[in-house]
Structures are given as C-alpha cells and as structure tokens.
Amino acid sequence: MDLINSVIVYLQNFIAISEKTYHVNPLIFCILYFGSAVPLYYGYYRVGRSIIKYEKRENKSQGIDKKELKVGITISAIAWLIPYMYVILFGKLSLHIWIILIILILATGLLFYKTLKNKISKIIKN
After folding, report:
1. Where are the domains of the chain?
2. Rounded Cα distance, 44 and 40, in Å
3. What is the pLDDT of the chain when averaged over all its residues?
4. At a CB cut-off of 8 Å and minimum separation 6, what does 104 contact?
5. How far apart are CA 47 and CA 87, in angstroms?
C-alpha cells in the first residue's frame, strides 16, 4: 500500500511541476498520444492496403493507387503530430526543449518518409 501511495504522490508532483514549468498537462498529452494511436495505425493500414492491392494485381502497369496512399499517409501524419502540436501550441518551452522537439519531429518524419519511399520503390520495380 505504501508503494501505491508513493507512486500516486510522485505522479501528482510530476504533473504539478510540469504544468508550472512548461504549462503543459502530461495527462492531456498522454490522452492525445494514446488516443491518436488508432488513427495512426489506420493510416498505416490504408498505406499497406494500397501496397497489397498493387502486389495482387495482374496488370501492374496502372501503378499503385496514389489516392489511397496519400490518404493513408495524411491520416498517419496528422495523428502522429496531434500530441506534439498540443505541446507546441500550449506549452512554454525553453530553447533546448524546442530544439529536441524539432529534431524529434524532423528525424522521425524523415525516417518514416524514407522507409515508405524505399518500400514503395521496391514494389514498383518488381
């Protein structure tokens, strides 16, 4: 019982310090972060579905369904950005936190773009 109480007190202190320091509520961030998981993976599903449809097609000269692909990427990108936009719009962050946040967004976005581009180019070549 002591452990549970100490964890609860720690979380309450963490939330209070985060709100005073950065003006961001970690609970709202967590809700946005985990709540955006369903649309994020739905976007991935749409991208994968367009790739699978292309692979199963006999006549591959038509190419991949670009509309389906763009919709999936857009849904995933927006869902991925939602929690970070909360921090950017409502948080008062110090310079080093801004730098880390920008690097995180750019690096993961670039990694996602390159991975998706490589997979699509391999499919189109085959």
Report:
1. 30-125
2. 7
3. 84
4. 84
5. 28
- What gap in Å lies between CA 30 and CA 86, rounded to an integer? 11
Structure-token pair, residue 55: 């692979």
Element housing 43 (H / E):
helix 37-56
pLDDT of the residue at 26? 85
Q: Which residues contact 108 (CB under 8 A, 6 or more apart)?
A: 80
Candidates 42, 104, 122, 105; CA nearest to 79 is 42
pLDDT (tens digit per residue) in 85-115: 888 888 887 788 788 888 988 898 888 888 8
DSSP symbol at 72: H
Instruction: Check: CB of residue 34 under 8 Å from CB of residue 86.
Output: no
